[in-house]
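ugh ok fine here u go
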Amino acid sequence: MKKSEIKALVAEMTLEEKVSLLTGANAWSTVAIPRLGIPSINLSDGPHGLRRCDGLGWNESVPATCFPPAVLLACSFDEELAKKQGAAIGEEAQEQDVQIVLGPANNIKRSPLGGRCFEYCSEDPVLSGHIAAGVIEGIQSKKVGTALKHFACNSQETERFVVNELIGERALREIYLASFEYPVKKAKPTSVMCAYNKVNGEYCSQNRWLLTDVLRDEWGFKGFVMSDWGAVDNRAQGVYAGLELEMPGTGGENKRELVNAVNGERVSMPSTDPKFKNKLTVYQINKAVMRLLEVVFSLHEKRNKKSCDYSKHHKTAVDIAKESMVLLKNNGALPIKGGKTAVIGEMAVNPRYQGGGSSYVNAINVTKPLDAMAQYGEVEYSQGYSLDNDKDYDKISDAVKLAGSCDRAVIICGLPLSYESEGYDRSHMNLPDSQLRLIDEVVRRQPNTVVVLCNGSPVAMPFVGKVNGILEAYLGGEGAGEAIADLLYGKANPCGKLAESFPQYLEHNPSYGNFPGENSKVNYSEGIYVGYRWYEKHNIPVLFPFGFGLSYTSFRYDSIELSKSEIDENEEITVTVTVSNTGAMDGKEAVQLYVREENPRVSRPEKELKAFKKVFVKAGESVQAVFTLDRRCFAYWDDEIHDWRVDSGKFVILAGDSSDNCPLTESVNVSARDYFKELSIHTTYSELKTHPKGDKFVKEVLSAAGEEFKKQLDNMPEDWPLRTMVSMCEAKLTLPVLVDIIEKVNSED
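structure:
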């Protein structure tokens, strides 16, 4: 339907009809108005598979393919693979008559203790943004909408409905908002879902700076904003701020709030925005309704309930898991060749393949690692531990005995579902004690032991030096069993890379001491230093670094070439990295490109990921990975000018296979415009010397105070502010006169 036609429909509505559209009809549908031909559309939880259900989701959902959650998908370092997963989800959404999938989830992993880390991509906004963009483009390519969530800073579950996230402007822009900025601009999601929490004192659901100033005015977002389920505080202020759709339905309560706000009657909730007085105009309501209806009509017209191939989607889920699981250690134990394997651990037959909460998918075809491994060779199984009892050690002795009778042991373990889920955070990084004891005792009997980890976020690994191999399988979706087997036996070559750092100790994490906060507040005191930025800046060794992952082959980074050695800040530069496969097996490598500024004027990370590319390299051959870096790749956020800024100087481009291994470097000189703050009484004399209006200011001061003041001015200490001139001029220069001079000089071109 054309925009003009929708506008005409809105003109026919009563106020009550308009506000009814801005609240869900129920838990999963929008309101329809039959008399005007306005349809309803259906929403479903995601983000790694559909959770189509009735009520608030307590009932079992419709069967669907469970794809790898974002914690694993991001380890693919492959935006095209993310797009492939999104397209499959979009096909299933069409079959199940779902018009908007609630996802992807794209919050930054500030702490490994976050209960919802399995749903999020990375600690790095560039990687996170690109993977989310791929998922969005994939889903929307099937004419199904998306809801990019949770905007913004939903980095913890503790007190998530009320917690106030206190974050500096620079950290917000460079880390937490940047994760959303790229997918909004590149993939253009149908909708954005606001978070529960507050950001710097204001609930996201009614934060006009967040929902309008940044999302719409700066980033050009054209869709509608919906609330997370139950996130609304002041409904009228939410509309003013840019929140169109409240979910779920509230039984008419908040509809009355909106009507009262338009009619100037009493609104229940006090306004927290001084510019909003709990008074809405019909124009503001109309604008919100228009934004919503444009999407509703568009998606309704694209409904196509044709059946999809779930067996094909299962294979897609397996392939994505294989491309994403990360080989962390291999002392020759893998791939498995011949002999008998002791498969130990309840997760081998009762696999952990997804997280808990609103993203829980009623998976169609879950494969067990034990069954998949049995297809490759002789295996015997022992339970080893209980998922229901962390202190059950009775099963260890049988597992140890079995391990000693075999050629090797593969222990499949990790975090039980009770350890991590939406709704609560973890308190430690440890595996269950029974699993740790199992690993210790098995290794004593069978040195050739491999550990396969199934977990949604980093764990401590006291066994890292004892075992011969570690495969980080994370949560692999319904095909995790097949993916694990294919990787262990060498049918597939590992090519996943860690999308987050694994600290040696929880105390090393930058959020330690400020997570999850207290008194409903949490201070992001680490600023921009999240993840590898923190560990490198503070020279803290990690267990496994960001971007790390082994292969069954070996890669050599041969050369890096820049298209230019000098650029203007608004020019792009092309970077070509040549990589060779020096091993005997074909493989894929995620080439990572980082940037470091030499001698920055402000504190900056040692390096920051700016681009990445997954390349396939045949054994004995070489390929080139080509990247384009633009102005933002060299910029940082300047709190004083409230904008992205590039400083002139030398920048180093680094290429490698992880954040701590970048063997190739090349430099480029960047020329940028000069940035100067306006003069003020607090401007120091050293700043005055290099300021373009410094000479003009001095001339005006000497005119007012007399030429004899010049000698005192020349000898003025460089760290003194200009206001000290008043005390040095023997009453010849008063503070009001100095202020007038500053205002005059600032106003001149």
